[in-house]
Amino acid sequence: MIKDLKFLIADIDGTLVNEPREMMDLTKKVLKDLHERGVYLGIASGRPLGPQIFSMAKNEWGLDFDFECFIGMNGGQLRDAIHGTTSEFYKLTPDLIKEIIGLMKASGFACNPFLYIGEDMLSEKVDEMMYASMKRHHINCSVVSDLSEFWKEDTAKLLFRLDNASDMPLLEEYLEQHKSEKFAFFKTQPTMMEFQDRRVSKAVAMHAFANDNSIDNDTIMAFGDMTNDNEMLKEAGWSVCLLNGSDDTKACANVITDYDNDHDGFGHYMIDHWYKPNGWKIPE
Alpha-carbon distance 220 to 7, whole Å? Predict the structure, then answer.
C-alpha cells in the first residue's frame, strides 16, 4: 500500500458506478471528501472526451466539484483541467483501420464495426444494441454506405460490437492467433472488442498527467475492472480491481475489493483500507 495519496484515477463503468450507471452514496461521499482534502481526482474512460464527460460529475453524479483529470479513448486522449490543456496520443492510421476491419470480417463472427467522430458515432448498421447506446449516451450515429468510409482519416480507436456474447471467447482466441505489433485489442464489455494503436493505454495518459503536475508514481492509486484498465493498474503506485472485474484485470491489480460495483465496492474499499488504517475521519 502507498503511504501518501495525491492522485486517484478510476475507470467509470463497472468501477465508479453500478450496472444502471449510477454512482452510489458512499462513493460520492468518499470522492467529495478526497476533493476537499486536495487529492487530485481523475476518470479514465473508453469514451471520447467532450462536454458530456467533462460535466458528468455535476450533471449525472450530483457532485459539486469538477475532476482535475479526464482520460478518454482508453488513454488516447487526456484533458488536464489544472492547466487547461488537451492532448492526444497514437491514433490508428487509415491503413491500419482497413487491416483491422479486414481481419474482423475474415473471422466470420457477426459484429458491427463503429468508431467515434467527435462524440458521435459512425457504424456499419444501427441495430438494437447501437440504438440503446445512442440513447444512453445522448449521441448520434451515422451509417456508412461503404466500409471505406471507416478509413478516410486517423481515429483514436475502432470498436466492434458482437451480435452474440457467446462468441467472445472464440473471437479472443482468433485474435490471439493474429496478433500484431501495430495494434492492440481488448474486451471492454461482454459483447465489445476494441482496437487501438499498441502504444496507447490509460497508463500513458495517467503518467502524462502526473508528470505535468509533479506527482510521484508512489502517490497514485488506480481503480478499474476490465482489460482496458490493465496497464493503468500495472503501473500505478497502488492498484485496485473491483470484485466484478475480469480475471485478467484482477491479476494486474495489487488487491481486489470485497464488494462489487453494485454494492459500492469503491467506497467500501476506500473506507476500510485507506480511511480507517490512516486514521482519517470517515465522511458522513
Answer: 5
Describe the strand order of the beta sheet including 255-256 as a list of residue ranges: 85-88, 77-80, 69-72, 40-44, 7-11, 220-224, 238-241, 255-256
Q: Which residue has the cell 466470420?
A: 108
Long-range contacts of 76-84 (CB under 8 A, 24+ apart): 76/156, 76/157, 76/196, 76/197, 76/200, 76/205, 77/48, 77/49, 77/156, 77/205, 78/205, 78/208, 78/209, 79/49, 79/54, 80/209, 80/212, 80/213, 82/40, 82/213, 83/212, 83/213
% residues pLDDT > 70 (the chain): 100
- What is d(CA 16, CA 12) in angstroms, rounded to the nearest whole number? 5
Helical axes 94-107 vs 168-176, angle rounded to 10° = 120
Query: Each residue of 218-252: pLDDT tens digit?
Result: 999 999 999 899 999 999 999 999 999 999 999 99
CA distance 57 to 44: 13
Contact 43, 56 (CB under 8 A): yes
Q: 94-197 has which fold?
A: 3.30.1240
Residue 188, pLDDT score: 82
Looking at the DSSP assignment, which residues form a beta bridge with residue 72?
Answer: 77
Please state, in angstroms and rounded to a whole number, the distance separating the CA atoms of residues 196 and 205: 14
What is the domain partition of the chain in residue ranges?
Answer: 7-89+200-275, 94-197
* pLDDT mean over 191-207: 96
Domain 7-89+200-275 has CATH 3.30.70.60: no
94-197 has the same fold as 7-89+200-275: no
